[in-house]
């Protein structure tokens, strides 16, 4: 469990470093663009039975792309990179999955809640 937490922390740290070193800014760009809205429903709870693997949730259930609206009124489809924070497929409960994306030099992230439930509760 502790090894998985360290692995997740390092993965988030590497991703943040790549975004910073690539000249991207979080939430805005050099020309003043910001992200106004996305079509990712962050209020929805994604519910799966215990023993559902992280990769299965990311690859088969969470969206791979979202539509992003920028402050200049333009809309763009963009790919999402998902990372699960402290995910344990053997334990029922709430988990946070982070979606990272970049549009026109504007980088951002959003969170969704993934809930694992025991088989009899699914």
Beta-strand percent range = 35-45%
What is the H/E string? Answer: HEEEHEEEEE
The tally of helices reads 2
Largest sheet: 5 strands, mixed
Low-confidence stretches: 18-26
Counting helices, strands and paired strands, the structural category is alpha/beta
**Secondary structure: helix percent:** 10-25%
Q: Tell me the domain tally.
A: 1
Name the shape in a single word.
elongated
**Total beta strand runs:** 8
Average pLDDT over all residues? 83
Please give the radius of gyration in angstroms: 16 Å
Give the N-terminus to C-terminus distance in angstroms.
Answer: 25 Å
How would you characterize this protein structure?
It is built from two helices and eight strands. With 122 residues, the protein is an alpha/beta fold. It has one domain. Strand 7 and strand 8 form a beta hairpin. The chain is elongated and about 50 Å long. The two termini are 25 Å apart. Residues 18-26 have low confidence and may be disordered.
């Amino acid at each position: 469990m502790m090894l998985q937490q360290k692995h997740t922390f390092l993965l988030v740290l590497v991703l943040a470093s790549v975004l910073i070193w690539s000249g991207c800014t979080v939430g805005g760009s050099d020309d003043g663009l910001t992200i106004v809205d996305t079509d990712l429903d962050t209020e929805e709870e994604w519910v799966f039975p215990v023993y559902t693997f992280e990769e299965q949730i990311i690859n088969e259930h969470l969206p791979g792309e979202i539509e992003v609206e920028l402050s200049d009124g333009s809309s763009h489809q963009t790919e999402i990179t998902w990372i699960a924070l402290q995910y344990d497929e053997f334990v029922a409960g709430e988990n946070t999955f982070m979606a990272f994306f970049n549009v026109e030099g504007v980088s951002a992230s959003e969170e969704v809640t993934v809930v694992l439930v025991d088989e009899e509760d699914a």
